[in-house]
Write a structure and sequence with these properties.
Sufe protein. Chain: A, alpha+beta, single chain, 3 helices
C-alpha cells in the first residue's frame, strides 16, 4: 500500500513539474511593421548577464543573427540561441519557444532581438 501511494505521489509531482516547464511561445517580430535593411545590435537581460546580439535584416526578414556577448550558463545559452536562430532563419517563424531550463536566457535573447528590431523600424 505504501508503495502504491509513493508511485501516485511521484506521478503527481512529475506531472506538476512537466506542466510548469511547458514551453511558451514568444513573438519577436511584428509582421505589420516595416524594417530598414541593415545590421543592428540589440541587448536583453538574460539570467546572469546582458545578452548582446547582432541582427541583419533584408526586405523585412531577419537574414542572420549572431550572439555577440553573454555570460549566462554557456551550454544553456548556446542551446537557446541555436534554437531561436534555427526557428527564425530556417522556418521564418517569429514565434519562438522557450528552451526548457533556459527560460530567462531565452527571454534575454528574444528581448535583444526585439531591441535590435526596434532600432531598425522605419
Amino acid at each position: 500500500m505504501k508503495r502504491l501511494k509513493l508511485i501516485w505521489f511521484m506521478l503527481i509531482v512529475t506531472s506538476l513539474f512537466l506542466t510548469g516547464c511547458a514551453s511558451k511561445e514568444v513573438s519577436i517580430m511584428n509582421e505589420e511593421i516595416t524594417y530598414k535593411n541593415g545590421t543592428y545590435i540589440g541587448e536583453g537581460k538574460g539570467k546572469d548577464s546582458t545578452i548582446k546580439v547582432e541582427v541583419t535584416l533584408k526586405d523585412d526578414k531577419i537574414t542572420d543573427i549572431k550572439m555577440i556577448s553573454q555570460n549566462d550558463t554557456a551550454g544553456y545559452a548556446q542551446k537557446a540561441f541555436n534554437n531561436i536562430k534555427a526557428e527564425v532563419l530556417e522556418n521564418e517563424d517569429y514565434n519562438v519557444d522557450n528552451v526548457s531550463g533556459a527560460t530567462k536566457t531565452t527571454k534575454g535573447i528574444t528581448d535583444a532581438i526585439q531591441n535590435a528590431l526596434e532600432k531598425s523600424q522605419k
